[in-house]
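Task: complex structure prediction.
Instruction: return C-alpha coordinates for all chains below.
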Amino acid sequence: MMGPMILVGRGLSRRPRLWTKGLPPGCRVMLVSEPGVWRLHGAPVAAALRRAGFRTGIHILPRGEKAKTWPAVERLLRAMLEAGLGRDSALLALGGGSVTDAAGFAAAVYMRGIPWVSLPTTLLGQVDSGIGGKTAIDLPEGKNLVGAFHQPRAVVCDTAWLDTLPARELRSGLGEVLKYGLLFDPALRAPLRKGRLERVIRRCAALKARLVAQDERETKGRREVLNFGHTIGHALETAASGRLRHGEAVVCGMRAALRLSQARAGELESFLKTFPLPRLRLRESAVMENLRRDKKARRGRLRFVLLKAVGQPVVSDRVREASVREAVRFILGELR
Ligand SMILES: NC(=O)c1ccc[n+]([C@@H]2O[C@H](COP(=O)([O-])OP(=O)(O)OC[C@H]3O[C@@H](n4cnc5c(N)ncnc54)[C@H](O)[C@@H]3O)[C@@H](O)[C@H]2O)c1
Ligand SMILES: [Zn+2]
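Output:
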Protein backbone atom coordinates (compact mmCIF):
# COMPACT_ATOMS: atom_id res chain seq x y z
CA MET A 1 0.00 0.00 0.00
CA MET A 2 1.12 3.53 -0.80
CA GLY A 3 0.63 5.57 2.35
CA PRO A 4 -1.12 8.92 2.37
CA MET A 5 0.90 12.10 2.27
CA ILE A 6 1.57 13.27 5.84
CA LEU A 7 2.43 16.93 6.37
CA VAL A 8 3.45 18.43 9.71
CA GLY A 9 4.09 22.13 10.25
CA ARG A 10 2.88 25.44 11.54
CA GLY A 11 0.41 27.28 9.30
CA LEU A 12 0.04 24.43 6.77
CA SER A 13 -3.74 24.49 6.88
CA ARG A 14 -3.79 27.91 5.24
CA ARG A 15 -1.94 26.56 2.20
CA PRO A 16 -4.37 23.96 0.84
CA ARG A 17 -2.56 23.69 -2.50
CA LEU A 18 0.10 21.71 -0.62
CA TRP A 19 -2.32 19.05 0.58
CA THR A 20 -5.07 18.84 -2.03
CA LYS A 21 -2.81 17.60 -4.82
CA GLY A 22 -4.49 14.19 -4.73
CA LEU A 23 -7.96 15.70 -5.32
CA PRO A 24 -9.57 16.63 -8.64
CA PRO A 25 -8.83 20.35 -9.24
CA GLY A 26 -11.71 22.67 -8.36
CA CYS A 27 -13.78 19.77 -7.02
CA ARG A 28 -16.61 20.14 -4.57
CA VAL A 29 -15.51 19.58 -0.99
CA MET A 30 -17.31 19.38 2.33
CA LEU A 31 -15.43 20.67 5.35
CA VAL A 32 -16.66 18.75 8.41
CA SER A 33 -15.95 19.88 11.98
CA GLU A 34 -17.55 20.27 15.40
CA PRO A 35 -18.59 23.45 17.27
CA GLY A 36 -15.51 23.82 19.51
CA VAL A 37 -12.93 23.40 16.75
CA TRP A 38 -15.01 25.27 14.20
CA ARG A 39 -15.19 28.38 16.40
CA LEU A 40 -11.41 28.39 16.94
CA HIS A 41 -10.03 27.24 13.60
CA GLY A 42 -12.74 26.71 11.00
CA ALA A 43 -13.09 29.99 9.12
CA PRO A 44 -9.46 30.38 7.97
CA VAL A 45 -9.42 26.84 6.56
CA ALA A 46 -12.70 27.38 4.68
CA ALA A 47 -11.46 30.72 3.33
CA ALA A 48 -8.16 29.21 2.18
CA LEU A 49 -9.98 26.39 0.40
CA ARG A 50 -12.25 28.83 -1.42
CA ARG A 51 -9.27 30.97 -2.39
CA ALA A 52 -7.66 27.84 -3.83
CA GLY A 53 -10.72 27.34 -6.04
CA PHE A 54 -12.63 24.61 -4.18
CA ARG A 55 -16.41 24.89 -3.92
CA THR A 56 -16.61 24.39 -0.18
CA GLY A 57 -19.60 23.30 1.89
CA ILE A 58 -19.54 23.17 5.67
CA HIS A 59 -21.07 20.65 8.06
CA ILE A 60 -20.87 20.74 11.84
CA LEU A 61 -21.07 17.46 13.76
CA PRO A 62 -21.96 17.30 17.46
CA ARG A 63 -18.98 17.63 19.79
CA GLY A 64 -17.10 14.63 21.14
CA GLU A 65 -18.35 11.04 21.08
CA LYS A 66 -21.83 12.19 19.95
CA ALA A 67 -20.35 12.69 16.48
CA LYS A 68 -19.74 8.95 16.28
CA THR A 69 -23.42 7.92 16.13
CA TRP A 70 -25.78 6.80 13.34
CA PRO A 71 -28.04 9.88 13.57
CA ALA A 72 -25.07 12.27 13.33
CA VAL A 73 -23.54 10.38 10.41
CA GLU A 74 -26.90 10.12 8.63
CA ARG A 75 -27.34 13.89 8.88
CA LEU A 76 -23.85 14.35 7.43
CA LEU A 77 -24.47 11.91 4.55
CA ARG A 78 -27.73 13.67 3.65
CA ALA A 79 -26.01 17.06 3.79
CA MET A 80 -23.36 15.71 1.40
CA LEU A 81 -26.08 14.60 -1.01
CA GLU A 82 -27.85 17.92 -0.75
CA ALA A 83 -24.59 19.76 -1.47
CA GLY A 84 -24.24 17.72 -4.65
CA LEU A 85 -21.15 15.73 -3.65
CA GLY A 86 -20.35 12.92 -6.06
CA ARG A 87 -17.62 10.30 -6.40
CA ASP A 88 -15.26 13.01 -7.63
CA SER A 89 -15.84 15.18 -4.55
CA ALA A 90 -13.99 15.02 -1.23
CA LEU A 91 -14.63 15.25 2.45
CA LEU A 92 -12.26 17.16 4.74
CA ALA A 93 -12.36 16.28 8.45
CA LEU A 94 -11.22 19.10 10.76
CA GLY A 95 -11.12 18.14 14.44
CA GLY A 96 -10.06 15.61 17.02
CA GLY A 97 -10.40 11.84 16.76
CA SER A 98 -14.16 12.00 17.09
CA VAL A 99 -14.48 14.11 13.93
CA THR A 100 -11.89 12.22 11.86
CA ASP A 101 -13.41 8.86 12.92
CA ALA A 102 -16.99 9.88 12.09
CA ALA A 103 -16.30 11.93 8.95
CA GLY A 104 -13.79 9.34 7.68
CA PHE A 105 -16.51 6.72 8.10
CA ALA A 106 -18.99 8.87 6.16
CA ALA A 107 -16.39 9.22 3.38
CA ALA A 108 -15.91 5.44 3.38
CA VAL A 109 -19.58 4.63 2.87
CA TYR A 110 -20.95 7.60 0.88
CA MET A 111 -21.52 6.31 -2.66
CA ARG A 112 -19.30 3.34 -1.70
CA GLY A 113 -16.41 5.60 -0.84
CA ILE A 114 -15.14 9.06 -1.78
CA PRO A 115 -11.71 10.62 -1.11
CA TRP A 116 -11.10 12.36 2.21
CA VAL A 117 -8.40 14.40 3.92
CA SER A 118 -7.65 14.16 7.62
CA LEU A 119 -7.02 17.49 9.39
CA PRO A 120 -6.38 16.38 13.02
CA THR A 121 -6.48 19.27 15.48
CA THR A 122 -5.57 17.42 18.71
CA LEU A 123 -2.15 16.03 19.60
CA LEU A 124 -3.78 12.59 19.92
CA GLY A 125 -5.10 13.01 16.38
CA GLN A 126 -1.77 14.17 14.96
CA VAL A 127 0.23 11.26 16.37
CA ASP A 128 -2.44 8.57 16.26
CA SER A 129 -6.16 8.75 15.48
CA GLY A 130 -5.87 11.03 12.43
CA ILE A 131 -3.48 8.58 10.71
CA GLY A 132 -3.99 4.99 9.64
CA GLY A 133 -7.32 4.88 7.87
CA LYS A 134 -9.33 3.28 10.69
CA THR A 135 -12.71 5.03 10.74
CA ALA A 136 -15.56 4.17 13.07
CA ILE A 137 -18.72 5.02 14.93
CA ASP A 138 -20.02 3.59 18.20
CA LEU A 139 -22.97 1.44 19.19
CA PRO A 140 -24.68 1.77 22.58
CA GLU A 141 -22.96 -1.54 23.45
CA GLY A 142 -19.47 -0.24 22.85
CA LYS A 143 -17.06 2.07 21.06
CA ASN A 144 -15.87 1.67 17.47
CA LEU A 145 -18.05 -1.35 16.76
CA VAL A 146 -18.97 -0.19 13.26
CA GLY A 147 -16.39 1.09 10.85
CA ALA A 148 -14.26 0.75 7.76
CA PHE A 149 -10.66 0.95 6.68
CA HIS A 150 -10.47 3.98 4.42
CA GLN A 151 -7.15 5.75 3.94
CA PRO A 152 -7.22 9.55 3.68
CA ARG A 153 -5.46 11.06 0.66
CA ALA A 154 -3.51 13.31 2.99
CA VAL A 155 -3.01 13.95 6.71
CA VAL A 156 -2.36 17.58 7.59
CA CYS A 157 -1.01 18.33 11.06
CA ASP A 158 -0.97 22.09 11.53
CA THR A 159 0.87 22.53 14.82
CA ALA A 160 -0.63 26.02 15.26
CA TRP A 161 -3.94 24.30 16.10
CA LEU A 162 -2.33 22.85 19.21
CA ASP A 163 -1.84 26.33 20.72
CA THR A 164 -5.49 26.38 21.76
CA LEU A 165 -5.65 22.81 23.04
CA PRO A 166 -6.60 22.54 26.73
CA ALA A 167 -3.75 21.18 28.89
CA ARG A 168 -5.56 17.96 29.63
CA GLU A 169 -6.10 17.22 25.91
CA LEU A 170 -2.43 17.93 25.24
CA ARG A 171 -1.44 15.50 27.99
CA SER A 172 -3.80 12.89 26.59
CA GLY A 173 -1.84 13.07 23.33
CA LEU A 174 1.44 12.81 25.24
CA GLY A 175 0.22 9.47 26.53
CA GLU A 176 0.35 8.12 22.98
CA VAL A 177 3.75 9.77 22.41
CA LEU A 178 5.08 7.85 25.41
CA LYS A 179 3.73 4.69 23.80
CA TYR A 180 5.87 5.26 20.70
CA GLY A 181 8.81 5.93 23.00
CA LEU A 182 8.40 2.64 24.84
CA LEU A 183 7.78 0.66 21.66
CA PHE A 184 10.39 2.10 19.34
CA ASP A 185 12.47 5.00 20.46
CA PRO A 186 13.36 5.96 24.03
CA ALA A 187 14.39 9.41 22.79
CA LEU A 188 10.68 10.18 22.33
CA ARG A 189 9.67 11.61 25.66
CA ALA A 190 7.13 14.13 26.73
CA PRO A 191 8.17 17.12 24.63
CA LEU A 192 8.63 19.82 27.21
CA ARG A 193 9.38 22.69 24.93
CA LYS A 194 7.18 23.83 22.03
CA GLY A 195 10.03 23.67 19.52
CA ARG A 196 10.44 19.96 20.07
CA LEU A 197 6.78 19.17 19.65
CA GLU A 198 6.83 19.43 15.87
CA ARG A 199 9.73 17.00 15.56
CA VAL A 200 8.06 14.57 17.95
CA ILE A 201 4.82 14.65 15.95
CA ARG A 202 6.69 14.08 12.71
CA ARG A 203 8.50 11.09 14.19
CA CYS A 204 5.39 9.48 15.73
CA ALA A 205 3.31 10.06 12.59
CA ALA A 206 6.04 8.47 10.46
CA LEU A 207 6.31 5.47 12.80
CA LYS A 208 2.58 4.87 12.67
CA ALA A 209 2.40 5.40 8.90
CA ARG A 210 5.18 2.86 8.36
CA LEU A 211 3.46 0.14 10.40
CA VAL A 212 0.14 0.87 8.73
CA ALA A 213 1.73 0.59 5.28
CA GLN A 214 3.10 -2.85 6.22
CA ASP A 215 -0.19 -4.09 7.64
CA GLU A 216 -3.07 -1.89 6.56
CA ARG A 217 -5.86 -4.09 7.88
CA GLU A 218 -4.15 -5.34 11.01
CA THR A 219 -3.99 -8.92 9.77
CA LYS A 220 -0.23 -9.51 9.76
CA GLY A 221 0.59 -8.59 13.32
CA ARG A 222 2.83 -5.64 12.38
CA ARG A 223 0.28 -3.02 13.33
CA GLU A 224 -0.75 -4.92 16.44
CA VAL A 225 2.11 -3.60 18.59
CA LEU A 226 0.44 -0.19 18.45
CA ASN A 227 -2.14 -1.67 20.81
CA PHE A 228 0.44 -1.54 23.60
CA GLY A 229 -1.36 -0.33 26.72
CA HIS A 230 -4.71 -0.55 24.95
CA THR A 231 -6.06 -3.87 26.22
CA ILE A 232 -6.39 -2.83 29.86
CA GLY A 233 -6.51 0.81 28.72
CA HIS A 234 -9.75 0.32 26.78
CA ALA A 235 -11.30 -1.68 29.63
CA LEU A 236 -10.54 1.23 31.99
CA GLU A 237 -11.73 3.85 29.51
CA THR A 238 -15.08 2.06 29.12
CA ALA A 239 -15.47 1.56 32.87
CA ALA A 240 -14.73 5.26 33.45
CA SER A 241 -17.49 6.25 30.96
CA GLY A 242 -16.03 9.59 29.92
CA ARG A 243 -14.01 10.40 33.03
CA LEU A 244 -10.69 9.21 31.54
CA ARG A 245 -9.32 10.74 28.33
CA HIS A 246 -8.05 8.17 25.83
CA GLY A 247 -4.36 8.97 26.39
CA GLU A 248 -4.82 8.83 30.17
CA ALA A 249 -6.36 5.37 29.88
CA VAL A 250 -3.45 4.30 27.67
CA VAL A 251 -0.93 5.52 30.25
CA CYS A 252 -2.69 3.38 32.88
CA GLY A 253 -2.81 0.46 30.45
CA MET A 254 0.92 0.79 29.74
CA ARG A 255 1.76 0.80 33.44
CA ALA A 256 -0.28 -2.38 33.85
CA ALA A 257 1.35 -3.93 30.76
CA LEU A 258 4.83 -3.08 32.06
CA ARG A 259 3.93 -4.85 35.27
CA LEU A 260 2.82 -7.91 33.30
CA SER A 261 6.01 -7.70 31.24
CA GLN A 262 8.19 -7.56 34.33
CA ALA A 263 10.35 -5.18 32.36
CA ARG A 264 12.00 -1.96 33.45
CA ALA A 265 11.60 1.08 31.25
CA GLY A 266 14.08 3.48 32.84
CA GLU A 267 13.40 7.15 32.34
CA LEU A 268 10.20 6.56 30.41
CA GLU A 269 8.82 4.64 33.36
CA SER A 270 9.38 7.65 35.60
CA PHE A 271 7.45 9.76 33.11
CA LEU A 272 4.61 7.28 33.29
CA LYS A 273 4.66 7.30 37.08
CA THR A 274 4.48 11.08 37.33
CA PHE A 275 1.85 11.43 34.59
CA PRO A 276 -1.04 13.43 36.09
CA LEU A 277 -4.20 11.35 36.25
CA PRO A 278 -7.69 12.18 37.54
CA ARG A 279 -8.74 10.62 40.86
CA LEU A 280 -11.24 7.88 40.14
CA ARG A 281 -12.85 4.95 41.88
CA LEU A 282 -13.49 2.22 39.33
CA ARG A 283 -14.84 -1.20 40.17
CA GLU A 284 -12.44 -4.05 39.55
CA SER A 285 -15.34 -6.28 38.48
CA ALA A 286 -16.43 -3.74 35.83
CA VAL A 287 -12.93 -3.59 34.35
CA MET A 288 -12.56 -7.38 34.38
CA GLU A 289 -15.97 -7.72 32.73
CA ASN A 290 -14.86 -5.39 29.90
CA LEU A 291 -11.71 -7.47 29.44
CA ARG A 292 -13.76 -10.66 29.28
CA ARG A 293 -15.96 -9.15 26.57
CA ASP A 294 -12.81 -8.18 24.66
CA LYS A 295 -11.57 -11.74 25.03
CA LYS A 296 -14.80 -13.13 23.62
CA ALA A 297 -14.38 -10.87 20.62
CA ARG A 298 -10.96 -12.46 20.07
CA ARG A 299 -12.22 -16.04 20.29
CA GLY A 300 -11.24 -16.80 23.83
CA ARG A 301 -7.75 -15.46 24.34
CA LEU A 302 -6.72 -12.00 25.40
CA ARG A 303 -3.71 -10.75 23.49
CA PHE A 304 -1.30 -8.45 25.26
CA VAL A 305 1.52 -6.43 23.79
CA LEU A 306 4.31 -6.77 26.33
CA LEU A 307 7.82 -5.36 26.42
CA LYS A 308 10.97 -7.45 26.73
CA ALA A 309 12.73 -4.13 27.08
CA VAL A 310 12.24 -0.61 25.74
CA GLY A 311 12.09 -0.93 21.96
CA GLN A 312 11.36 -4.68 22.05
CA PRO A 313 7.62 -5.35 21.99
CA VAL A 314 6.28 -8.92 21.92
CA VAL A 315 2.70 -10.10 21.53
CA SER A 316 1.48 -12.74 23.95
CA ASP A 317 -1.79 -14.59 24.38
CA ARG A 318 -0.51 -16.55 27.36
CA VAL A 319 -0.91 -14.06 30.16
CA ARG A 320 -2.66 -15.71 33.12
CA GLU A 321 -5.97 -14.28 34.29
CA ALA A 322 -4.66 -14.02 37.85
CA SER A 323 -1.77 -11.84 36.68
CA VAL A 324 -4.15 -9.63 34.69
CA ARG A 325 -6.36 -9.22 37.75
CA GLU A 326 -3.35 -8.29 39.86
CA ALA A 327 -2.20 -5.69 37.30
CA VAL A 328 -5.73 -4.23 37.11
CA ARG A 329 -5.95 -4.06 40.91
CA PHE A 330 -2.58 -2.29 41.00
CA ILE A 331 -3.61 0.38 38.50
CA LEU A 332 -7.00 0.92 40.13
CA GLY A 333 -5.13 1.55 43.36
CA GLU A 334 -2.95 4.14 41.63
CA LEU A 335 -6.05 5.95 40.31
CA ARG A 336 -7.72 6.24 43.71
N1 LIG B 1 -9.06 5.89 14.31
C1 LIG B 1 -8.10 5.63 15.18
O1 LIG B 1 -7.09 5.01 14.83
C2 LIG B 1 -8.24 6.12 16.59
C3 LIG B 1 -7.17 5.99 17.50
C4 LIG B 1 -7.31 6.51 18.79
C5 LIG B 1 -8.49 7.14 19.16
N2 LIG B 1 -9.53 7.23 18.27
C6 LIG B 1 -10.79 7.91 18.63
O2 LIG B 1 -10.53 9.29 18.81
C7 LIG B 1 -11.51 9.84 19.69
C8 LIG B 1 -10.83 10.74 20.68
O3 LIG B 1 -10.15 11.74 19.98
P1 LIG B 1 -9.68 13.10 20.68
O4 LIG B 1 -9.07 12.83 21.99
O5 LIG B 1 -8.90 13.82 19.66
O6 LIG B 1 -11.09 13.75 21.07
P2 LIG B 1 -12.16 14.78 20.52
O7 LIG B 1 -12.29 14.79 19.06
O8 LIG B 1 -13.38 14.51 21.29
O9 LIG B 1 -11.53 16.18 20.98
C9 LIG B 1 -11.30 16.42 22.35
C10 LIG B 1 -11.72 17.83 22.76
O10 LIG B 1 -10.76 18.75 22.28
C11 LIG B 1 -11.40 19.83 21.62
N3 LIG B 1 -10.47 20.29 20.59
C12 LIG B 1 -10.06 19.61 19.49
N4 LIG B 1 -9.09 20.29 18.85
C13 LIG B 1 -8.91 21.44 19.54
C14 LIG B 1 -8.03 22.54 19.40
N5 LIG B 1 -7.13 22.60 18.41
N6 LIG B 1 -8.11 23.55 20.31
C15 LIG B 1 -8.99 23.48 21.34
N7 LIG B 1 -9.82 22.46 21.54
C16 LIG B 1 -9.78 21.44 20.65
C17 LIG B 1 -12.69 19.27 21.12
O11 LIG B 1 -13.67 20.28 20.95
C18 LIG B 1 -13.07 18.28 22.22
O12 LIG B 1 -13.76 18.93 23.23
C19 LIG B 1 -12.22 8.66 20.34
O13 LIG B 1 -13.51 8.55 19.78
C20 LIG B 1 -11.37 7.47 19.94
O14 LIG B 1 -12.13 6.28 19.79
C21 LIG B 1 -9.41 6.74 17.01
ZN1 LIG C 1 -4.72 4.92 21.28
